Structure of 3-dehydroquinate synthase:
Amino acid sequence: MNESDVQTIEVALGARRYPVWIGRGLLGDSARWRARLRGRHALVVSNTTVAPLYLERIAQGLDGLHWSSFLLDDGEAHKTFGNVGRALEALATSGATRDACVIALGGGVVGDLAGFAAACWMRGIDFIQMPTTLLAMVDSSVGGKTGVNLPAGKNLVGAFHQPRAVVADIDTLATLPDREYRAGLAEVVKGAAIGDATFFAWLEANTDALVRRHTTTLVEAIARKVRYKAGVVARDETEQGERALLNLGHTFGHALETAGNYTALLHGEAVAIGMLLAARLSERLGMSEAPDTARLQQLLDRLGLPVARPAGMAPEQLLALMRLDKKNTAGTLRLILWRGIGKAQIVTGVEETAVLETLAEATSVNAASGRATAS
Ligand SMILES: NC(=O)c1ccc[n+]([C@@H]2O[C@H](COP(=O)([O-])OP(=O)(O)OC[C@H]3O[C@@H](n4cnc5c(N)ncnc54)[C@H](O)[C@@H]3O)[C@@H](O)[C@H]2O)c1
Ligand SMILES: O=C(O)C(=O)C[C@@H](O)[C@H](O)[C@H](O)COP(=O)(O)O
Ligand SMILES: [Zn+2]
């Protein structure tokens, strides 16, 4: 793939529509993204791992602007309200006016937090997503969900705030550790599992190439997932209906992440386990068939993702965390369940006993290994 081969996928939100650019050399291609900045101030939000690797690549493009950077410590545990406050202080110190732009350079943690800070500063300023993980490229940088975690639960505080552009420079994936890369593949599988059986079969046929990070296969996977998500977001920006399907595996997954104090499991790993739990629960409720669950489990397993509940996270503890999920209404569980490959459904009033039984049947494993086998 050449630097000139850039794919553009539009998130069609009328006056707030924006491009997702996917390709090589995009961070250094400031002629492309600089035009999306309107004012004279920019704050680059990144973290202590990513900034030393990639801040320099965009610095030249910011020449002539009044810009500074704000770096988070690395990790999900730092996606906190306190750090949003610190980012806002950095905007204040820099004298950012309403036409300032926040640039999120990093993975989903940086993107979610930076986007939320942009949504809050002076009641909303522009931001640009520059995702540097696979997960951020295929999921978190697109769609405008921003926010932070509380000790009580994942993403409990936030805002819908769309970026002005998404700059997905796949060159950055060269330094991404394998475990993080695999976690990103979980969100690719999720998109196919929810809404595209053909894509799911393509993923099954291309597993080895994806694990090897074969460039054209990887770019096709990224583009297919982004195209799918962009379509859902354009139809249902603020999750009044269809968009909730993008949460397949997340009620379980977020509970697993919270139970692990945001350190035991990566988001993508928790989503992989969560999708399997959702598939098993769906089977238990007569909504899906065992062969589909087996295909999902096999694909996740071949991609090197965990598929079972980690040891030390008790079903009752996880259920208690699931009760605080944002999709719930009127004190009942509202989950995204599965109707087999390519089909998901929002189900309200799911019986807690069925959830507990599903959680209890999953084999316990050691979360620290990042791998697991299923029962
Ligand atoms: N807003 C959304 O729609 C949405 C969607 C999916 C996930 N999320 C959120 O995204 C977060 C997970 O994002 P993530 O998986 O990107 O995790 P992350 O942001 O923690 O990044 C993963 C790790 O990779 C490092 N890293 C990032 N880019 C790198 C690079 N190019 N080279 C080397 N190291 C690099 C980071 O420093 C970090 O250690 C979660 O908080 C999740 O809730 C949000
Ligand atoms: O964009 C969406 O909508 C999603 O649900 C994408 C998810 O992969 C992502 O993890 C999102 O942050 C979860 O949102 P939440 O509303 O459950 O916090
Ligand atoms: Zn997710």
Summary: Confidence is low (pLDDT under 50) at residues 364-375. The CA atoms of residues 153 and 324 lie 7 Å apart. The two ends are 41 Å apart (CA to CA). The domain at 7-175 is CATH 3.40.50.1970 (Rossmann fold).
